[in-house]
Amino acid sequence: MSKLPAIAFSKTAATNKGTVVFFVVEKGKLPSAASAFDKDGRLSNAMAVAEFAGAFGAKVEIIAPEKGLDRIIVLGLGDLDGVDEDGWMKLGGKIFASKGKSASVSVITDLEGKTELSAPNIAKIAGGAKLRAYSFDNYLTKKKDKPTACKITFVTKDDAGAKKAWKISDAVTDGVIFARDLVNEPANILGPVEFAQKAAGLKKLGCDVQILDEKKLKSEKMGALLGVAQGSVRPARVVIIQWKGGKAKDKPVAFVGKGVVFDSGGISIKPAGGMEDMKGDMGGAAAVCGVMHALSARKAKVNVIGIIGLVENMVDGNAQRPGDIVVSRSGQTIEVLNTDAEGRLVLADLLDYCEEKFKPKFMVNLATLTGAIIVALGNSHAGLFSNDDNLSSQLTKAGLDTKEKLWRLPLGAEYDKLIDSKNADMKNIGGRLAGSITAAQFLQRFVKDTPWAHLDIAGTAMGSPKNEYSQGWASGFGVRLLNRLVANDYE
Ligand code: BES
Ligand code: ZN
Ligand code: ZN
Question: Of 246, 278, 367, 382, whose CB count within 10 A is highest?
Answer without folding.
Answer: 367
